[in-house]
Please model this.
Amino acid sequence: MIIKGDIAYTPSPQELVTIEDGYVVVGDDGRVMGTYSSLPAQYTPATTGTLTAPTLVDCTGKLVIPAFNDLHTHAPQYPMLGNGFDCELLPWLERYTFPAERHFEDPAFADHWYRRFVNRMWRVGTLRFSAFASMHTEATRRLMELCQESGLRPVVGKVNMDRNAPEYLTESADDSLAGTEELIRWARTHTPNVGYVVTPRFVPSTTSELMRGLGELADRYDLPVQSHLDENPGEVAWVRDLHPDIPTYTDVYDRHGLLRDGRTIMAHCIHLTDHERDLLRDRHVFVAHCAQSNMNLSSGIMPARRWLDAGLTVTIASDVAAGQDPAMNRHIVQSIEASKIRTLEAKRGGNDGQASQAGQISQAAEPPLTLPEAFHMATKAGGRFFGTVGSFEPGYDFDALVVDEGENPLDLPVADRLERFVYEGDDRWIERRYVAGREVPEPFAQDTGRAE
Amino acid sequence: MIIKGDIAYTPSPQELVTIEDGYVVVGDDGRVMGTYSSLPAQYTPATTGTLTAPTLVDCTGKLVIPAFNDLHTHAPQYPMLGNGFDCELLPWLERYTFPAERHFEDPAFADHWYRRFVNRMWRVGTLRFSAFASMHTEATRRLMELCQESGLRPVVGKVNMDRNAPEYLTESADDSLAGTEELIRWARTHTPNVGYVVTPRFVPSTTSELMRGLGELADRYDLPVQSHLDENPGEVAWVRDLHPDIPTYTDVYDRHGLLRDGRTIMAHCIHLTDHERDLLRDRHVFVAHCAQSNMNLSSGIMPARRWLDAGLTVTIASDVAAGQDPAMNRHIVQSIEASKIRTLEAKRGGNDGQASQAGQISQAAEPPLTLPEAFHMATKAGGRFFGTVGSFEPGYDFDALVVDEGENPLDLPVADRLERFVYEGDDRWIERRYVAGREVPEPFAQDTGRAE
Model:
């Protein structure tokens, strides 16, 4: 397939490649063969090798960009989207989130709302994601089935919880592990396009025994892991109380085998010590930066520039529903906005209460995120979790969005049009969606009830 | 007219009144007569006085809320929406904004884009607003005509600029005043529902002579005034250089007769001295708080709680296009988010670089905005600028939105449903729009080109 349009992608954080009236050539294997400003002769039908009679998809005048990869979202929180913003993390869990997730013990409720969730991911152009389900094994199975049916390629995990939560949302460690292993094995044959991700909710909700069992499962089945880390000061203190023998929150995960090298996602990572930062870097952990959620729950602002400078892999994520927007472009914007506030904080010398060094920290010390950087963090940086995903370099899976922005009143170049889509666009602008080279039609459209 | 639905409004910042399956009774004069949880006998057709055979508009299951009032938006920046976020205020003006506003010297461009702007205001439920036009008299006239035709009831002003801007966007003080007075007189007969607001761009762009002339016009014709104030430190320093004899930026406006008591809007108001804060309070100035714009241009975070505590009238505004969202609900959310960051800053003792008092400032010192407070700031607080607007108390103009949120999965009470609309809703949720008791159909729908 050859797709013609106004191409934009970020092979690196500093580099936004744009090709107006360009071409992406996609092989039968669904991978990008190359991008071109004019179509090379070898891709005409007569001379193609692996391509037989390539289809030309003409998206002239429209943006063609990598689809979004959202490494931190809570599928069972979709029904509570937009509510509960009057408290911080720990009361928020007790007051809103645990009661909301409880509903997923009802299979009909789970089916109903997971259809809507998956439809919404498709709508907003998030074609791969890493989702927490609930602790309910059957509901999680349903979510994975629906994802497999939809054409999207996320990973999903049943949430493991055996302490410090309402009894209706906890199980014994044994039951939690059994349900997890059952799903892992089931998924291998039933959901080839939907991987399983081992999902301890966070340290306070999973005993050592459970964490150790999960680390073992992840190792045995060679699976990725996801959890939360250093989001809120009260949470950090709680972890210290629960594990006084372990120096840091990050070390708790590490000692239970849950920081699998290059295969782990940790959400938030705001209040890291230098040691934790280095440990995350050494384990090649994917940091899921959730700026909107962090503002909503008064968790603080993660210093994205400092973590990037320290060599961490930082991605942008939605954290539905502590984040109220499923749409990743809004999170790109909010991450940039948060980084601008952070830059001003750093200039003033503020640094989470440390001694002021006003005047000594230059304006350049913590420059804000640029649009290419943030776009990279929402596409290629998180895409690496799934493989060669999130860019249009040769060999990358062709995951893409075709975006129709409507009028272009100021005759903007492609880079500015991308910025406009990011800042101002919504799902109505997205015309087509491709996963691994295949166009994905709208899943479960008849179930959404209303145009959201 | 009697409208039945799930009523919500904020008669005061601390009070969200909700009436599930309630009624708003609207008189023939377009004003609210009362809200009720069940329809009183006197409003049945047989016994009505001022009402003759009231229409019942049945919006059962839908939210009925006051429409939004946006006291700070730049209509000619609508075509540049979503662009230009890589610099601070002063370079942003030079690089993006002045060139964009230049296009409005072309009457066809102005007509085309002002139709879209007005349509967009209608779509997002902003039924009254105070808009900066451009310095072009004819384009401004066109905007006022279109507004008059649309059924919305904004105020609009030609922007006065005679210094420190490109020559294509400046005029002599005389020409600027003449164009202004011409529009003022013309509007009185041609746009009865669209008032004129005297609009010096900001001190750096208007000489003393021009400011004085504008103050005089505002006084002679008894008109409101709008401008910008204390948005960016570089701007504040510039004003000091331009007027070294005048103690503060606010005093510059005041000394030129531009702080008309109870009839003035000042946007941003971030970097106020205590004296300026008190002066704004004494003049009953409407502060237009533009949290999103302030983040985008790295201007800082306006300390909303401190200004509210000091007795200022603080409203929420969009500042299109330094703010990228026309939709006021998003600005309600972003104002709350900004206030949460501000609360954390204040806790740490940070106060724009002042000596740290960590530990002495309690968490309660600057609590964040609540949803009712922020909703009040986007409806009633700014509504007062237009008269008795922005609430459903008796005597208030019935400006309202009917909102269909679709499914209510967790059987939420009305207050939570309002929160959900604010955090998660978009223009697609808004079903009906009323201004002064009359339903306003979509203006200029055929011109929008695309579904935005």
Notes: Chain A touches chain B through 57 residues (CB under 8 Å). The first strand of chain A starts at residue 2 and ends at 12. Chain A has two domains: 2-66+390-442, 68-383.
